[in-house]
Amino acid sequence: MPAELTFAAPRRAKPPRHLADLSPQERAETVRDLGEKPFRAKQLAKHYFGGFESDTEQMTDLPADSREALGEALLPTLLTPVRHVTTDNGMTRKTLWKAFDGVMFESVLMRYPDRVTLCISSQAGCGMNCPFCATGQAGLTRNLSTGEIVDQVVASARDLARGDVAGGPGRISNIVFMGMGEPLANYKRVLQTVRRMTDPVPEGMGISQRGVTVSTVGLVPAINKLIDEKMQVRLAISLHAPDDELRDELVPVNTRWKVDEVLEAAWRYAGTTGRRVSIEYALIKDINDQAWRADMLGELLKGHLVHVNLIPLNPTPGSKWTASRPEDEAEFVRRLKSHGVPVTIRDTRGQEIDGACGQLAAAED
Questions:
Q1: pLDDT beyond 50 at 363
Q2: Where is this region: Disordered (predicted)?
Q3: Which domain holds residue 50?
Q4: Is 240 annotated as a binding residue?
Q5: Is the pLDDT of residue 8 over 60?
């Protein structure tokens, strides 16, 4: 990360090394160090990324007397599901994961008629301190490893492929980094995860880059780095206010990179990739949902390659922050459309299962 980004997580024991943490060359070297032929690494990767299998005892193309050692070296258990909670007739499933050191984080699988979207976490907790966000209330525990982020995807893909999710067997088509944490504050591992998910099998899972969305509150130096990657992932900016005065309160990192700076970086990203930027905007009753703020937002965004995703706030227990009135939400949409800005209201799945990221983990404390 650039030197000016100082959102370091506390020093803790490292997660076990995993195949997903390593490049294909590093996997081959690890296998060679065990006295095995380097091609065994590709076999392991094909099972893991292509078949979603983590148990080497099920990999019958590996020598029986080598499976345990290969599993311990490259496919250790990283995540344990604490519980699954479902709603929408099972079409939405939230999973609370426990890592090797006891930290907890969440992912949400959402099944739609035309796609399956998985929302994943990149950190345990979050250091951005946004006051209306459940994860922000807990603070940052640590960054997740590449393996821990990827394993959320592989484990969910395995359950989906085996028909353990309502709707029958299926495949994940879309990945959004909108779970716990600020993805661009864990830049290296998030980018490695994107590579693992989008590289072809057996190097990765073979998911299209265009199906991946990386969200950020606006870490401008990291957005600039992402531009240089020349990838086709979608960038989502968690804006939540069009004016610096309010955004300083709602998104404290705005005191370092103001609205204009963040949007300028977003337009550079759109110009380089040709991909529409998503503006995430949580509508909060009497805080940021005024019609005049909709007009201000419309003026900032009109004429750009952009789409606004309005999010009815999913309130957390005891919070003063709550969702906008329906009539205020409708007027906000109308005002944005009057400026020619495309806008949709996010599907509010998961409210009855503590859908706001961080709520399940907080309930376990």
A1: no
A2: 1-30
A3: 19-74
A4: yes
A5: no
